[in-house]
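Structure ticket #2291
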Amino acid sequence: MLPGAVNLGVTPMELSAMTAQAKYRTACTSWALEGFGVPAVHGYYVIKAIVYLLGFWLCQRRHAGHTGFTKLFLKDMTFRQDAFRRLVLYNLLFEVLGFGCGSGPLTARFLPPHTAWFHFLCPGTIKLPFRMNSRDSRRSLVPWLSTRRTKFDVALFVGYLYSLVRMMLAPQVTAAGCRVVCAFLSALALVDHTVFLASRGEVYGYMAVAFCSRASSLQGAQLIQLGIYFWAAISKLGPWFANVIQVMLSNSPCWPHAFRSLLYRDLQKGDFRASAVAKRLAGLGTSMELAIPLLLPKGGLSSRLGLFLSVSMHTFIFTNFAMGCPQEWNLFTPMAAHHLFIDQANGLDLAKLRDLACRAPLISSFLWFALGVVPTLGSFYPPSNSFLTSMKYYAGNWPTTVWLIKKSAWYRLKSLHTLSDFVPDQCTLLYNAEQSEAAGLKLFAFRALHLPYRRLATLVNVALQGQCLDEYQYMDGEVMAGTVLGYNFGDGYLHGRFMAQAVQDVCNFELGEVLHISIDSCPAHRSEVPWFIRDIIALWNDDSAIAIGKTPLAELVDAQPYEVLG
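Resolution: structure written out below.
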């Protein structure tokens, strides 16, 4: 076994002799006990987080010299206000260049670990304009926008980068400068929505909108922070979050190996259902996240207790390395909670909040829409928007896709303009073909252990229609988006039918060469998970679908992730 290679605990010969169901069970057991199985990669994210903090420190030092961080801890309130605004814009820049969420080896980016910047700056790459139906409509909201990046798209992105860098270098972050940033980001959200999501626009972009007027700066940012916590907690009120705890802690460098089996009912008997320990940890996390937006606005000791819970929760997430690896976001969020509710104010001033509509009516209307209407729509009708704008962070109730690509047609993907090779090719280059299969099975296990996808093995079998799985390359939609778009972050919004059609328009696959399995989120008012299986040449006609159905949550709760039914 090569250093850093993926290990399933069996030899390649033993693996090749297994049935599909036996391979799935082996992979799930390996994930439960070892996670992805390459502990050294966690160090990469620690170094990246240090670079993130160092970069902002150097930026602040430019404006305040050697006394910059002294001012942060003294009574220079104006400096701290400006520093926070600059930190928000710094995060926009850090994220959109591909250095933040969804980067590095734990998101299947090996060579190179950061790719977003290339795609956003390179004409001819695949892009995703905003759609009529937001996620899966075949047409863009603006009819003439294509899914191929143009020089105009690149010019918009360069203008966006310039506006951010200009504010980073300016003596002070101004409302006028923030308006320019928001103008570019708004245009990109329409013509190239991937850039908006890659910027984490639903956090830093919304805050930049609040900074567009001095009248809305503090109360607007407070509303955004409370909205993030509220909707993130609400999205965890379901049976799915316990499985997120299982998958995350099984891959954690900090959760002891001896305790990993305690997260599952009975690993020796192949029972991967959530144990009482996993359920209690999920309940504790949900309770903490619900308490934070209730405590922070109250002021005094209550706000400090809310901050303590915030720091505790984000420290837990940071040190256990969730697979999307939003490490910098987990550093930023407690700092934002402290600045907005303790340093700049004693909780939330309700009188000023009520007056916000008069002082900044346009910004107030935008924030109520973005923080109220959009997440509500995302909860009750998940296809309406991304899980990011729905603020379903870490919930485990996300849409996803799986692509089964015939190995004999794999060469067609070479027609796409990408910076990196697809993950199987990278694994083969770094190690060998056996390692590529092992990595694919680990990705299957990661996906199938989450609650909405517990019938994934059966759906793969239905999609194959009697064909042999060995004839196809199993590809998680996240991995596909990471290469095709240069960005991915746990969101079926990116790699649903719209991206599949964009790939098909370039690659021209034939019937049976690519099978697209789509599993949606469970709506808040339903108790079943919708799924769809389509051939890539017939994505838009449901009558031509291979299969369409819904799986009850009660069935998924008791399902084993490796079972192949029917």
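Closing remark: The CA atoms of residues 356 and 382 lie 30 Å apart.
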